[in-house]
Amino acid sequence: MRVAIVTFPGSNCDYDCYKAITDVLRRSARFVWHGETRLGEADVVILPGGFSYGDYLRAGAIARFSPIMPAVQAFAAAGGIVLGICNGFQILCEAGLLPGALIRNRGLKFLGQPVHVRVENNETLFTRAYAPGQLLRLHIAHGEGNYVADAETIAELESSRRVVFRYVSAGGEVLDSGNPNGSTHGIAGVINAGGNVLGLMPHPERSVEALLGSTDGLGIFRSLQRAVESGIAERRLVTAEAG
Amino acid sequence: MNAYTIDVRISPRAGLLDPEGKAIHHALHSLEFDGVEDVRVGKLVRLKLLADSPDGARQAAEAMCRKLLANPVTEDFEIVVDGRN
Predict the structure, then answer these.
(1) pLDDT, tens digit only, all 85 positions of chain B
(2) A203 an active-site residue?
(3) Cα atoms in the 13 Å half-sphere on the side-chain side of B39
(4) CATH number, domain with residue A117
(5) ipTM of this model?
(6) What is the rounded CA–CA span in Å between residue A187 and residue B72?
(7) Among the options A86, A93, A139, A144, which is catalytic?
């Protein structure tokens, strides 16, 4: 698996992603500066967390017009796997690669804390290494993580199982007390209709080694590795090109 | 070409939670401004723009809003050209 990690001015989780791929998975990763126009050889593109362009205007609003973004759009359109984490999720929403938007946390404060997240759909390229309904302990670090979309979009996401991760209580229940930022239906991560673009607010790359207090985020990277190396992702890519 | 001053007023869409507005509303009430029924907080983007007519300036500003300045999922916008809505 070859991973391209896009670094925007203000990205600050790009190295964490790099370490997760290279040190833990022992696979290849490289950085692609936002000012470039080509992604190069890649099976997976990661848009990492951070504060691209200082979150000016809206989080992700300016980054989505970076010179590299047409290449990311084309990669996604051809069925390529794109993972957006935190600010990366915000950028994907702004770019229209994922539905909805992320607005200010309902409590107004920036939140840096562990949360409990339930795997709502383990039949995606990003989540096959997890058990159905598996409870994860991951970290969030965001000021704008409150997921909103119109009622129709939310209903469509729910009925098509495109809500992949949901904030829950420590006991795994969907409770308001387990929802840190006020996200609609406790949505923490969603996937596109094609199943190849996923965005989530929690940081899986911060939970990949016992030393970090949790390895619950590793499942996402392992799932992608398996998808790419077993050829599932490649077959999808071919189908996408043919279609 | 004339220079126009454009104010783009961006506000959270009706019905969308505006936690900042809510916090200010609460603060105004605690200062006994009891008549305040609602507070919404948005932002103002002021542009100086060259265009051949006020309509041309407005159209350009609208295009900017749709592409970048406002997010249609969460925000409404209003354009004021040289003080006129």
Answers:
(1) 899 999 999 999 988 888 889 999 999 999 999 999 999 999 999 999 999 999 999 999 999 999 999 999 999 999 999 877 6
(2) yes
(3) 16
(4) 3.40.50.880
(5) 0.85
(6) 20
(7) A86
User: Among candidates A236, A209, A212, A214, which has minimal Cα distance to A224?
Assistant: A236
> Could you give the number of structural domains in chain A?
1
User: What secondary structure letter does DSSP report for A193?
Assistant: T
Count of A-B CB contacts under 8 Å = 35
Angle between helices A232-242 and A218-229 (to 10 degrees): 70
Q: Catalytic site residue A144?
A: no
Q: Does the CB of A108 have a partner CB in chain B at under 8 Å?
A: yes
Q: How far is A63 from chain B (nearest CA, A)?
A: 11
A47 strand-pairing partners: A84
Host domain of residue A188: 2-242
Domains of chain B: 2-81 (3.30.1280.10)
Whether residue B19 and residue A100 make contact (CB cut-off 8 A), yes or no, is no
Give the angle B41-A175-A93 at the CA atoms, nearest 5°.
Answer: 50
A187 and A157 in contact (C-beta within 8 Å)? yes
Active site residue A158: no
Cα–Cα dist B12/B14, whole Å: 6
Strand partners, A2: A28
Please enumerate, as own/partner, the contacts of A204-207 that have beta carbons within 8 Å and a separation of 24 or more: A204/A20, A204/A85, A204/A138, A205/A13, A205/A16, A205/A17, A205/A19, A205/A20, A205/A48, A205/A85, A206/A13, A206/A16, A206/A138, A206/A139, A207/A136, A207/A137, A207/A138, A207/A139
